[in-house]
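Archive entry. Fields below.
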Amino acid sequence: MSVGLYIGAFLLICISQYWIYRWRNPRSSGKLPPGSMGFPLLGETLHFFAPNHSSDVPPFVRERMKRYGPVFKTNLVGRPVVVSTDPEFNHYVFQQEGRLFQSWYPDTFTEIFGRQNVGSLHGFMYKYLKNMVLNLFGPESLKEKLLFQIENTAWKSLSIWSTQPTVDLKEATATMIFDLTAKKLISYDPDQSSENLRENFVAFIQGLISFPLDIPGTAYNKCLQGRKKAMKMLRTMLAQRRASPDKQYGDFFDYVVQELKKERTILTEEIALDLMFVLLFASFETTSLALTATVKFLTDNPSTLHRLTEEHEAIRRMRENPDSGLTWKEYKSMTFTSQVINETVRLANIVPGIFRKALQDIQIKGFTIPAGWAVMVCPPAVHLNPDIYKDPLVFNPWRWQGTEINGASKHFMAFGGGMRFCVGTDFTKLQMTVFLHCLVTKYRWKPIKGGEMVRTPGLTFPNGFHIQLLEKMQ
Ligand code: HEM
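PREDICTED_STRUCTURE:
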């Protein structure tokens, strides 16, 4: 009996030793990139999620770059991942979308954004949705409809904020953008609704890239609860609209209702709702972070603020009526502003990791990436590379002088790259530019508190960047 027990224990030890060995040395048809797979099950997850108070490349990545070089392997939330900080490698990953690599995000993302969100769809369905979004936020729509609406919203918001003793800028700009996008998508008006849709998205960015522990109190759990409530509201709204399909509101729901009425359509209600949810989140959370970061950088860099103000005041002076609305031509002429925006998104690194999955064994830079492994492209490592950007931690919009950046490049991937390049880029840039125009031509501001950047590994302003807005003497 005791011999049997010994043999059992011995076998158990052998199996677990072998399992640990396999964890640390995954199978591969070739040479894997260097790096550590961390502890069994946990991998290096805890270290990856540790908050970081610098604007520099996250310590998790920085330390491993030093130890292993620009491409290394790790394990995050139970998944083998190859992290790339190498511009050529990143470029290759983006260019091979749908062939060798495919857009893939950790389970936390798909649980929160829905299994059928645009980032997780591929092929025909993906192209169909992308076209829908481009119709809504592409250049034509921005020029013909959104420019005017964005400017109106910005003036209104600024005028309200200037009557308040302090404004939490991230919160205030997020609400401003959320309301604008929600109106455009679903004609949602917070003043007319008994439930607050925006409330469900609070604390989202913390939960999105967090440890996937779905128990009360965790950031992940809060996110999932928020999603449930928001989806319920969206589902109810869509059902009401489908009940009276001939009534037009001039929003995106009109389009969805018409599509769903067709006999031959690939769109389903679930896909449309997941898309709505993603667009609401993607539009307000990213742009409000970018705007808050811009105002913070301008506060800390008076010479940039001065130059930016000059650009906008000159445009006002050129008009017959200085208070007439912004035109598309004026918007396109704001060169320094676009440099400020580029520099902000380079330094703020709002999206700290872009994920893909290898569809087959891939040979690259002398390494093999086994099929099924995840790849994380790391934009901060590219944007803060001193060989490309001199004094990379310094906010210097002049470094963009003379460069035409409309898409992505090997050294600029704040909005991604390749086929999956962000469909909201133009919308974001327009909103930021219009807001800055209204802000610097009519107001000055005083920082009250907060503004410190903390990455978790997303970017947040934990104590809030509070400013007091003061009307300029005209
Ligand atoms: C500062 C603002 C923004 C930043 C930094 C940003 C960044 C990014 C990045 C890096 C990607 C690529 C993800 C990937 O390759 O997997 C992306 C994709 C995407 N973005 Fe943005 N974004 C911003 C604003 C917006 C806005 C305003 C919208 C909404 C209209 C939006 C909607 C999307 C969508 C739907 C995708 C998925 C596209 C696809 O899978 O092809 N983004 N964004």
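CURATOR_NOTE: The longest helix spans residues 269-300.
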